[in-house]
């Protein structure tokens, strides 16, 4: 059965014959032009729907190009998750990535955005490339490339085209690096509740060496950064700037913090100060404001570190996905 699936995937890609560009995500190395192994798609904003591909717009050049689905998912998983993670975690990430970008593609093609010029989405989100090309991975992984690439591509191929669905529709399968110990309700971050994006415990995340981080700011530094927010003006002695403890959700996300009379959300503070998450506490002492931050990312959906932890406890990729995404099906 496995040999048949691999053979079918190869035939499928040969039929597509789209040697087009890819670009990457975490800690990206900016590229001015699409990769050589792919070519831009002329008039991609005018042709009909292309099956089996993702259309991307280069954030650097504005050029629109197509990437075969399998290549895209391998590159997306490589950008999103360490290749040293457990194979079942890599499979879970592959299904989540494919679902996430498939849902965006479906919305984009139903209601095209003029600025995308026919693309499904940009190849950069929040300044990070969404996937890596094979050439980029050779540079990134160096001597480990052959082993890592085979591990990731095998994991992706084994679950290729599987989708996470709710009510027979692909979900918004968001994910993050490390949770704060319990994942967050999407409504806390984005104002809209989703039945499948509900809080679940993720205790394995606390074992991560990067679970807790600290960021320190002098009063002048904090004032400079917060002054970018409308309505903020520092006043009084620094030790009086924050009178009360931040208000938080049950999962630990700061929902409200008052600084010098200006009320901020945790998301605003995270963005203004460059914190790793909106789950934090703050103290003032020795002339500095010290923010202690839990987790890394928005804390909604699947925790990638948590997925690796659960995989090492014996969970399959389907069990991991059903754990982090409530009442979903894998199809």
Structural descriptors:
three-stranded mixed beta sheet; 10 helices; 2 domains; alpha+beta; 16 strands
Description:
The chain is of the alpha+beta class and 331 residues long. It has two domains: 2-206 and 300-330, no CATH class; 212-294, no CATH class. 34% of the residues lie in helices and 17% in strands. The protein is built from ten helices and 16 strands. It has helices spanning 2-16, 69-80, 87-110, 134-141, 145-159, 186-190, 219-226, 266-273, 304-312, 317-324; strands spanning 53-57, 64-68, 121-122, 124-125, 128-129, 164-166, 169-170, 175-176, 212-217, 247-248, 254-259, 262-264, 280-285, 288-294, 302-303, 329-330. The strands form six sheets. It has a three-stranded mixed β-sheet. It has a three-stranded antiparallel β-sheet with strand order 7-6-16. The protein is globular. Residues 1-39 and 41-49 have low confidence and may be disordered.
